[in-house]
Amino acid sequence: MTQSQDALPPLFCFGYGFSAQAAARLWLDAGGHVIGTTRDPSKLKQMRAENIEPFLFDAVPDDSLLSAGAILSSVAPTEAGDDPVLQRYAPILAQSAARWIGYLSTTGVYGEANGAWIDETAPLAPTTERGRRRVEAEAAWLKLAEASGLPVHLFRLSGIYGPGRSALETVLAGRAQRVEKPGQVFNRIHVEDIAATLWASWQKPNPGAAYNLADDEPAPPQEVIAYACTLAGIAVPPLVPFEDAQLSPMARSFYAENKRLKNQKIKAELGVSLRYPTYREGLSAEWQTRAER
To answer: What is the pLDDT of residue 6?
Structure first.
């Protein structure tokens, strides 16, 4: 059943980060109320300025959580593999009357696929510790849903980008490398397409479902950097073999997996039409916005 926008209930966001902020903007634009959490006291004032009712993560009143009609969690598991939201709030969540709950996971749960195309039916076979922790967190949310009847949905996100967090920012900051690992590709997903998919799921809930949030074109990372350089009028840096690249341990870990994500499910089931089907539309839109400032 399609959820009514006439009486939009509060949206509760565990973690008010990049993706949650985009989802919150859609909720606010539709006349809804948004509650969000942070662990940083210095962010409370800014959240209020964005019309978000803020709480520190460990100090959420029970009634604020119980009054939410929709709940979104973008909180990552701990290094021990525990989900902080469930650790702290599982007993209250079990009493929730929320009509929709979304958990933001990662496509890292699938592990290495040797460049093959995979959809949501692919086995969960993570090859990194981060991926394994996400599999455990997904299972914990589904276990709570089974015990309580909560309408939990899983959203497996590809590489997130958008204004202020993209290859353009890297290029303009002079930090760009064109790292080449033959055959390596990544999917990406624009933050506005994440928000639109969450909104579509709210309107057409399917508890227990998992969705790949990915663009239409898995692409080599060096091509994305080259396109960003071209937009910015900056010389394209030379290719650097993966073995010689200066990468953080986390960045290097992304190259341990190579897969192409199918996104037909969000289109067929939720009616999503990606605003940014490839990195080119996303980066071009960001550059155009910069040019108009």
So the answer is: 55
